[in-house]
Amino acid sequence: MATVTTKTGQVVDRANLDAMLRRRLFYTPAFEIYGGVSGLYDYGPPGCSLVNNIIDLWRKHFVLEEDMLEVDCTMLTPEEILKTSGHVEKFADWMCKDPKTGEIFRADHLVEEVLEARLKGDLEARGQEVVVDEAKEAKKKRKTKSKAVKLDDEVVKEYEETLAQIDNFDGPELEKIIAKYDIRNPTTGGNLLPPVAFNLMFQTSIGPSSNMPGYLRPETAQGQFLNFHKLLNFNQQSMPFASASIGKSFRNEISPRSSLLRVREFLMAEIEHYVDPEGGKKHARFEEIKDVEMAFLNRDVQLSGSTQTETMTISKAVETGMVDNETLGYFIARIQQFLLKLGIDPTKLRFRQHMANEMAHYAADCWDAEMLTSYGWVECVGCADRSAYDLTVHKNKTGAQLVVREPRAEPIKVEEWQVETNQKTFGPRFKKDGKTVAAALDALSQELREKLSLDLEKEGKIEVDVEGVGAGKVELDKNLVTIEKRTRVDHVREFTPNVIEPSFGIGRIFYSMIEHSYWYREGDEARGVLSFPPIIAPIKVLIVPLSNLADFRPLTQHLITRLRRAGISSRVDDSGASIGKRYARNDELGTPFGITVDFQSIKDKSFTLRDRDTTKQVRASEDEIVQALKAMVEGDETWEDIRKRLPEFTGQELE
Amino acid sequence: MATVTTKTGQVVDRANLDAMLRRRLFYTPAFEIYGGVSGLYDYGPPGCSLVNNIIDLWRKHFVLEEDMLEVDCTMLTPEEILKTSGHVEKFADWMCKDPKTGEIFRADHLVEEVLEARLKGDLEARGQEVVVDEAKEAKKKRKTKSKAVKLDDEVVKEYEETLAQIDNFDGPELEKIIAKYDIRNPTTGGNLLPPVAFNLMFQTSIGPSSNMPGYLRPETAQGQFLNFHKLLNFNQQSMPFASASIGKSFRNEISPRSSLLRVREFLMAEIEHYVDPEGGKKHARFEEIKDVEMAFLNRDVQLSGSTQTETMTISKAVETGMVDNETLGYFIARIQQFLLKLGIDPTKLRFRQHMANEMAHYAADCWDAEMLTSYGWVECVGCADRSAYDLTVHKNKTGAQLVVREPRAEPIKVEEWQVETNQKTFGPRFKKDGKTVAAALDALSQELREKLSLDLEKEGKIEVDVEGVGAGKVELDKNLVTIEKRTRVDHVREFTPNVIEPSFGIGRIFYSMIEHSYWYREGDEARGVLSFPPIIAPIKVLIVPLSNLADFRPLTQHLITRLRRAGISSRVDDSGASIGKRYARNDELGTPFGITVDFQSIKDKSFTLRDRDTTKQVRASEDEIVQALKAMVEGDETWEDIRKRLPEFTGQELE
């Protein structure tokens, strides 16, 4: 992989950038005075403000623009819900423990690390040049040293094949690989215990009696699904509609790494758009975005071993069937529009389709927005068509009617196998489990109903799977239940909506956005600049009085108030530092504009306005400057527009 | 206590109000289709929007207005930090378990419930009228039935005295009371186990090896304290300054009750204002709020058994010493200003001072903003002067310099006992514990140093308490440490700032605000109205086309876009319901304004604008209406102003 460069063509030196971000308190390791905890970070003032601005824009771009129903659901989640969703069983990574040292390794990362070190050693032994993938190296927590040992050609091939598929192995497969290639603790050489599944959810207990196990949610989605019926009512039964949620989620990573990219507590923004599965999942506003061009990396290209993206319009991508449907396509294009507003570099953005084995079995299609950073391509937004899976599993578990019912224009006749319970006997027999058993019967397929009807006829009783009741099976006899083929006139169409889910990792977007905005002014010492778009910048204007003389104070105070009233955040720096130094500090904070208050200002209330990226200045009256700032901050004008309108100030840039 | 009434003098019927809030999805029990979990609620679209608007205003009123440094710290918190802060030991309630049924009772609530039921039974037996405190009843989770049994006069007095002090008993005291008065499970009459402390923090484990116990934070404050030094640097060493944080916190309540008022997961907004303890804690902007009048309920009045508030200006309250200092007073006044902007009824707001035994031992003074609701007086904001406690404990534990150092104008000479460690022997002796031991030595008082110096002289060794090292005590000899009286010229003043902490429970403010805004239009069926101030209302404008005819659509769409551009959120209701019904629905959502689109609108682009509270209407051009809305939403004009400016529309209110 080529080294990642800034917009200005400079090499991104991550150590420098990172030091700057920490110095300026964009973020900082949490609990640092207590030694810190890996994977936990705090956001300081500029980081916090940047995140708030991202969220604000997200809300405008998605929630307000499309009248989405925003909800705020609890993070604490009882176990039962996450059992139904599949998280208790499947939301896990495989880990190996060293029984001697107690060290814990994420199994797939360990295999990767060891095999890569051996391949590197092989190249060294063969006297060949070793090309280091810096992005990959950066993600590693611990560097395993390679030894120059030559491997058989056959072994090299096996290793390479294993590494190519490393994301696809389950625990038993990883166990075999570890045994086969004799993979050990890279530091001590000690043997490891076989991989065990480690659930990535933080567990806790709700209430005082510790009989209600719960977890911190791993995503915001479940709360939205559980409220589906209430939201549909709120929306006056009108379809399609979307819910949206912004909030923290949690993953107990085995070994967090890559700074803000893999953390244990993170902010997500998720949309659940509910769409009728019939009629090809059209979208009423597709027309508005149909000509948006984007870089796609589809499944077939990836299968062929290439990472070559293809640029085309979203309408072509949907027409050719590469993107499954219009609604999914609509959101993919809207995601790109959002990311570009944030200042993401379009040349470092691609949409990668999930491979068949990457997606959940129920998903119809899934695309990730990936951003190129010094860590490599980073998945920042996922956009999946999750079919009717989520609503269906919760409906089947609880019996809640998570469906849409709409009157048919023409009633239809339906022949179907109906299951009817005997009110008199059913309730007394199952008591509090009655609802669960009834829901399980309700969820039986037509085929199974037909078969059960024959069994009931023949045996006089049947057995039905009911999770959570008795031993998971329930016996029913003719006295409890009837199963018959009947004809029903159907006036109402009932369907479970499909879900299109755009899901945003705000911390990853935050980091990628910073890298894409970063460059530095050459000089004796490189001076970092963050070229955030004005709408996103933490502070919009730095006010710089020439010195900290009392004479400047009334004017400075007046400007702050005036700008605040115009909705423009500003900060004053009246420290003794040189004007150049003060601007340099604010270049690092990404402050797009600066106002200098000088002696001329005291005389005629004119000021100079400085642009961060070009360091050019104009001089104009207070009114003109406030008006120009408002126009630029709200995105109506650019600096180029302002420069043409207002007279340039060519006084020296004071260092 | 008198029944609580609305601004319009109507009795608040909480059952009705609550049904309305749930129907309109302001909030809803979380996980309801799974049976729900007490103390956990989700916010639906209007609730979410209302909370966002409260937060937005909070940020403007506090953070932006005073350049506070906003931070966002993690909720996951390692145990060590919460041990230092005292939460692991002290953040607990006392609970009793029924060994037979497994039921768990919060001990103080149980005593209260049982004694009150007995007192009620006594009154019944005496044939006296029983006055029910409805607010108190409403807070109860379970109503214990009273039996008409007469008590001795002496016993009645004892019960009453016990109840008056119920908040002050610790576990052993509650145990004695339970034994003495033979308090049992009210339902079964079974005996209970003695009270045990139940820590209210949710516990979890961070990382895969479960050797790092952690908790979900019970407040946002600790993260702010731990970052003090970094924030001081960010603020270029300038004092005073404040940090601020908005985020979820968690308390594992034993038995949550009172709906949104006592929940397990809640949004907080907290400020930590750092002030120099010397010089009387003056505040530079006190002048701006000195004439704010507020209702105080001070400590002495409470001690005398009264709840009579006294109204005076904040400057008088500070001058007389009732409020400890200017900075505390400044924030108390600012809190009131904030609450009034939200629409809190000033006649239902008081500031109650904490009793000496209510405050932490280190607090200098503490006042709660309390709001009167149908649940009684509810504590919504706390404002405490926490002295130097928090920074001091973390400094002592970690050795981090959580202090301010500023140059003295005049250097001073200081005679003091200095502790010096021997570099050569100290490190090798204590290894990784060295920092902790050194911090403990550093924290020794002058008196103790003097005593230890004598001991060291006499015995050749001393013993020092060092929490967390060995058995909590460390032995030091002359070879490791020297303690001598020396004179030092001090050029730098070093001090630990005191913390003024305004702490807002957003959910409680949210609920109180709704109750204070609630009233209903009399009629065949009472129709609820929420009179939110426009700035806070979830949606500002309802657009109501006369019918759902296609003719109205372009005009409606045009209005939406126009309003969105002006930053005004709107919603269309083109359902078939009557205009009156549609407005009624939005009265319940608190939408302050309505625009009717009728046939006249198609002709001349004029519209009627309706005011929610008066139901009066004006008719004007699109430009005039948008301009009027903007002025009202931004708080520049009121409906009364608009009514005077624009012609009234006297067409019938269409039902």
Question: How would you sum up this structure, described in words?
Answer:
Chain A has 655 residues and is α+β, with helices and mostly antiparallel strands. Helix content of chain A is 35%, strand content 26%. Chain A is globular. Chains A and B meet through strand 2, helix 2, strand 3, strand 4 and strand 8 of A and strand 2, helix 2, strand 3, strand 4 and strand 8 of B.
Task: Please render the helix and strand layout as text.
Two copies of one chain form a homodimer.
Chain A: H1 14-23, E1 27-29, E2 41-43, H2 45-64, E3 69-70, E4 76-78, H3 79-84, H4 87-90, E5 92-97, E6 104-106, H5 107-125, H6 134-139, H7 153-164, H8 171-180, E7 196-199, E8 203-205, E9 213-216, H9 221-226, H10 228-234, E10 241-250, E11 265-275, H11 286-289, E12 293-297, H12 299-303, E13 310-313, H13 314-319, H14 326-341, E14 349-353, E15 365-373, E16 376-385, H15 389-398, E17 404-421, H16 423-430, H17 434-442, H18 446-459, E18 461-465, E19 473-477, E20 481-495, E21 498-505, H19 506-517, E22 518-521, E23 527-530, E24 541-545, H20 553-565, E25 570-572, H21 579-588, E26 593-597, H22 599-604, E27 606-611, E28 617-621, H23 622-633, H24 639-645
Parallel strand pairs in A: 3-10, 12-14, 24-25, 24-26
Antiparallel strand pairs in A: 1-2, 4-9, 5-6, 5-7, 8-9, 10-11, 11-21, 12-13, 14-15, 15-16, 16-21, 17-20, 18-19, 22-23, 26-27, 27-28
